[in-house]
Amino acid sequence: MRNSTRYIMSVGELKRKDNSISFRNEKGNFYIPIESTKEIYCLNEVSINTKLLDFISRAGITIHFFNYYGHYSGSFYPKEQLISGKLTINQAKTYTEKREIIAKSIVQGIADNIYEVLYHYYKHDKKDVKLTLDWIKQDIPRYLENENINIKQILSVEGELWQRFYSCFKYFLPETFVFNKRVKRPPDNPMNALISFGNSILYSKTVSQIYNTHLNQSISFLHEPSEGRFSLSLDLCEVFKPVIVYKTIFELVNNRKIQVGKHFDKELNYCLLNSAGKKIFIEAIEKRFESVFYHSRLKRKVSYKTAIKLDGYKLIKFIMEDKEFRPFSIKEMV
């Protein structure tokens, strides 16, 4: 199946041309096939007009915009068709009454997937990660099984989980990609640049997948619901970060497809992927999104991109039918 995502990496103008989409830059006109396009990512300064927006809205195409630093700025997507007042009311009720249950499930899901990623390196003689593996296996469930744990404590557990994950990078990555702490805005070294760019792509992909459900994007459970962002997308993308973003990064770095001397622009206090680096990273992460696995519950093959939407459906089942919410597990492939 042809990839339905298009990336625009240069400055230019995006407009409607007859019954097609045209992108014009200094090199000329390029046409984007509307029939096979579902998402357009604008990674540079791109001019658009309302004529184009009306056209892509009727075609069901979403446009995501990113700023200079590669961070997600916002999306334009077609008028929502999948609106359910009943679900929205119950989603809000679930937030007030059962927020901690969902938040704990998400953090446990993050832990399970981080465990599987690190265990891969443990099996390949990186025994120094064992301390973190044992902590995830023994302590995370103990923390989360506490019925009196509140949302701040759950977020604290999540924060420590990510920090322990980062501390393991030095055991299986080249020294040039090891970092001391997570810095987001702007990223200050090559690893932070890769993580920020990958997380932004995953987040926007999650926005698109939730759009295809009846869920309300603004009502979240792990992250605090906030004005000006789709906080539910932040929730659902978390368990996929180890599987999609970090596995992509580790493979590109360890196979020397991404190199510090070739693929980054460094300024006084920040570090960004250059155009060549972005192209390599985008190709790799899109390949991962579109790769398929056998879903043990559905008894058929699905892509990792579809798995994000399936987690949305699981959440709906919890909200409407009180069925257990267990996010995607790379070990169980459900």
Describe this structure as you would to a colleague:
It is a single chain. The protein has 334 residues and is α/β, with parallel strands linked by helices. The chain folds into two domains: 5-66, CRISPR-associated endonuclease Cas1, N-terminal domain (Ribosomal Protein L15, Chain: K, domain 2), CATH 3.100.10.20; 85-321, CRISPR-associated endonuclease Cas1, C-terminal domain (Four Helix Bundle (Hemerythrin (Met), subunit A)). The protein has helices at residues 50-59, 85-123, 130-144, 151-167, 190-211, 231-237, 241-254, 260-263, 275-290, 304-321, and strands at 5-8, 12-17, 20-25, 28-32, 39-42, 46-47, 62-66, 72-76, 264-266, 271-273, 292-295, 300-303. The strands form four sheets. The protein has a four-stranded mixed β-sheet, with helices on both faces. Strands 4-3-2-6 form a four-stranded mixed β-sheet. Strands 9-10 form a two-stranded antiparallel ribbon. A hairpin with a 4-residue loop joins strand 11 (292-295) and strand 12 (300-303). The model has no long low-confidence stretch (mean pLDDT 90).
Distance between the termini: 22 Å
The domain tally reads 2
Runs in which pLDDT lies below 50 for 5 or more consecutive residues are none
CATH class membership of the largest domain: Mainly Alpha
Which class of secondary structure composition applies to the elements?
alpha/beta
CATH topology of the largest domain: Four Helix Bundle (Hemerythrin (Met), subunit A)
- Please report the total strand number as a whole number: 12
The shape is globular
Tell me the CATH superfamily of the largest domain. CRISPR-associated endonuclease Cas1, C-terminal domain
Q: Approximately how much beta-strand content do the residues carry? A: 15-25%
Count every helix, treating DSSP H or I runs of 4 or more residues as helices: 10
> Over all CA atoms, what is the radius of gyration?
20 Å
**Major beta-sheet overview:** 4 strands, mixed
Give the integer mean of the pLDDT values.
90
Level of helix content? 40-55%
Biggest sheet strand order reads 1-5-7-8
Q: So, CATH architecture of the largest domain?
A: Up-down Bundle
